[in-house]
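To: structure subgroup
Subject: Chain for Friday's discussion

All,

I'm putting the inputs and outputs inline so they're searchable in the archive.
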Amino acid sequence: MVQIDKKDKVDDLTDAAKNMKLDGKGTGHDEKLIIALDFGTTFSGIAFCFANQRDPKVVSILEWPGAEGEYTPNIPTIIAYDEHDKSRFTWGASVDRTKDNIQGVKLLLDPDQERPLYLPTSTMKWDLKRLPKAPMEVAADFIGAMYKHALSEIAKEVPASYLSVCQKEFVLSVPAIWSDKAKDLTIKAARFAGIHPVTLIKEPEAAALYTMYALDNALSVGDAFVVCDAGGGTVDLISYEVTSITPKLQLKELVTGTGGMAGSLGLNKRFNEALKDIIGEDEWSRLRTHKAFFHAEKQFDREVKKAFRGRDSEEYFINFPMANLDDDPENGLEMNCWRLTGTTLKKIFGPLINDIIRLVDHQVKSVQLARPGKPVNGIFLVGGFGSSQYLKACIQKEYQNIQVMQPNDAWAAIVKGAALSRLPREAKVVSIKSTRHYGVEVLEVWNDTRDAGMPSRSVRDGVKRCAIMWWYIHVGNDLKRDQKIKFPFLHDIPIDYKPENLVFRETLYEAADAEAPSHRSKGEKLKFNCSLTADCRNVDPSHFIKMTGKDGAQYYDVSFDLCVTLESAIMKFSMEINGKEMGGVYANYD
């Protein structure tokens, strides 16, 4: 656990309080309090700032229940429910680790993420089955508890009357590789916890913004860098180019972001597997519920993972106090103490390090292809695993001509960057790269070349048609922030239509195939994204066009555009008719 001097903590909060601008009545009606939450797989944290200060200061919450005497920017993402009352629970550092508890619930929000083969057999189905509530509700309980505690900490230094009228803006960070459904569940969890409205930001984007802030904009226009956010469950990589320095720093994504499930939680799992191999299955079953095991796991997590530098000569001693383990000198286990050598640690770290280097290499080479003859100016490591000295040494060895950096406060880069992202005067990412194709299935007039072997359909006037994919966004597209992408639709309704005839349902598909497939059955990585409901019941009927078919029957054409706006981490939908926003659009990811 990062140790922080109490004086530093008090100074940070005091500075934030001193810089508040109160109106003549002593209230902050024009003040905005930005609260950023990093809901992580293994650790979570909160940072905040008052947006209207002349020089906004981002402050981390450092005091947490159950961690009395320690000042740390994050707490374990653990929650334990009362056996008889599921509305009661303990969370974070207050949880008794020797009893039944829930860890890694964040990963259960996106259970379809591909897991690497080097991790032990997934217990995802078992983890889902043993939850007392849906994963979204468990996440909501934890997020809500964090938020309430954060407010109580802020209230210690800020007048309660001021805090009560202060406009609050929330931002949550999510992995860049997260599915749109998982992002939607994250928003629902926040709303369930009473946090609304909320903005999402991709974790590596938040880290990039904080890195630029920490470097005091020490880059030039045209510089390119790779951000590797190595956290507890996931590793995300996105590359950026500096497009502007003044009047404020602006960045753009250079290539499609990548990532995987190679976070440091995998190190803990491999540590456990290595220990189980030594002491055996029976002894392992006893030890895993003993306090000694949680002491040892914490020692590995807090000390060894960060300190190991990759030398074979290194030695670390993991203690299992009062565990009564059998001695095994050959494997370094004596008197309830396991001597971990550098050789053993390399075996534990190896697969994850190799996976991260593979991901970094893909980003570096992609940037070099996108900018022939231009250098990659830096690789920034952030996140919990990103603070590993061994990871940094391994990446630096691979890229001796690129500076590999671990910014100060790497452990808090994401949550602080998330808060900074809502400040208009700070750095901004102005364009992003699409990681998937997005489109809909439509009926088109039959094409013998394109549609050979596909089923056909006959619709009005007996014209032969085929269902094909119509893609509006492609992998690698450069998408400007707040850019509107329009999906045109045309529907026929009866001349004597009823209100329910004005509710249209469309299916949005996504595909991660290199080439966008022409038909739904031809996409190996094509799947359902969400169901979109376009509601035209409140639209003025004058916008509907009366038509007459060849058979003389009359009907109305209802033409509209479904509009998609891509923000940092999520799509927003709206509807336009004749260029004006009207009606409503609702997305369902279930």
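Points worth raising on Friday:
The two ends are 38 Å apart (CA to CA).
The first strand starts at residue 32 and ends at 38.

D.
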